[in-house]
């Protein structure tokens, strides 16, 4: 889908504040409220806007430890392992990466004891996982909240 400059301005405004009203967005881009509503609906219909959501500060929600994992998996078990890990509420995101059947995973837990339990019970005990490498976040400088134009 080809986006014009107005679509890009709408998306930029929504990326900054997804709660802006159609009236506020219309003022920002110089269109009527109805035209903005139609454009946003079209962006949703075309799959450009997947969903509207809120970004929660995990630390304020009690998740003090944030860690990334590189998990190598036997190729024949990749889909099953990935789905099982994706179903775990401590897993914030999981992606299949290039390389030898590698999963990249972000995990949020309350403390280091919970992280140790996660590693021992949710990773090391899973059939098909061949290697686990972890990195713990010390400080966040920027977090992905969506594609920026």
UniProtKB/TrEMBL annotation:
<keyword id="KW-0805">Transcription regulation</keyword>
<dbReference type="InterPro" id="IPR036388">
    <property type="entry name" value="WH-like_DNA-bd_sf"/>
</dbReference>
<dbReference type="InterPro" id="IPR011991">
    <property type="entry name" value="ArsR-like_HTH"/>
</dbReference>
<dbReference type="InterPro" id="IPR019885">
    <property type="entry name" value="Tscrpt_reg_HTH_AsnC-type_CS"/>
</dbReference>
<dbReference type="InterPro" id="IPR000485">
    <property type="entry name" value="AsnC-type_HTH_dom"/>
</dbReference>
<dbReference type="InterPro" id="IPR011008">
    <property type="entry name" value="Dimeric_a/b-barrel"/>
</dbReference>
<dbReference type="InterPro" id="IPR019887">
    <property type="entry name" value="Tscrpt_reg_AsnC/Lrp_C"/>
</dbReference>
<keyword id="KW-0238">DNA-binding</keyword>
<dbReference type="Pfam" id="PF13404">
    <property type="entry name" value="HTH_AsnC-type"/>
</dbReference>
<dbReference type="GO" id="GO:0005829">
    <property type="term" value="C:cytosol"/>
</dbReference>
<dbReference type="InterPro" id="IPR036390">
    <property type="entry name" value="WH_DNA-bd_sf"/>
</dbReference>
<keyword id="KW-0804">Transcription</keyword>
<dbReference type="GO" id="GO:0043200">
    <property type="term" value="P:response to amino acid"/>
</dbReference>
<dbReference type="Pfam" id="PF01037">
    <property type="entry name" value="AsnC_trans_reg"/>
</dbReference>
<protein>
    <submittedName>
        <fullName>AsnC family transcriptional regulator</fullName>
    </submittedName>
</protein>
<dbReference type="InterPro" id="IPR019888">
    <property type="entry name" value="Tscrpt_reg_AsnC-like"/>
</dbReference>
<dbReference type="GO" id="GO:0043565">
    <property type="term" value="F:sequence-specific DNA binding"/>
</dbReference>
């Amino acid at each position: 889908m080809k986006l014009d400059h107005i679509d890009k301005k709408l998306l930029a405004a929504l990326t900054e504040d997804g709660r802006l009203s159609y009236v506020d967005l219309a003022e920002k881009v110089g269109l009527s409220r109805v035209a903005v509503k139609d454009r946003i609906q079209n962006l949703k219909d075309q799959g450009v806007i997947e969903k509207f959501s809120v970004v929660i500060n995990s630390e304020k929600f009690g998740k003090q430890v944030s860690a990334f994992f590189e998990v190598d998996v036997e190729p024949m078990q990749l889909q099953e392992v990935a789905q099982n890990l994706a179903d775990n509420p401590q897993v914030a995101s999981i992606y299949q990466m290039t390389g030898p059947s590698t999963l990249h995973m972000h995990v949020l837990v309350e403390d280091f004891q919970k992280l140790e339990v996660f590693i021992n019970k949710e990773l090391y005990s899973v059939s098909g996982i061949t290697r686990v490498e972890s990195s713990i976040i010390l400080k966040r400088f920027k977090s992905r909240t969506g594609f920026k134009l």
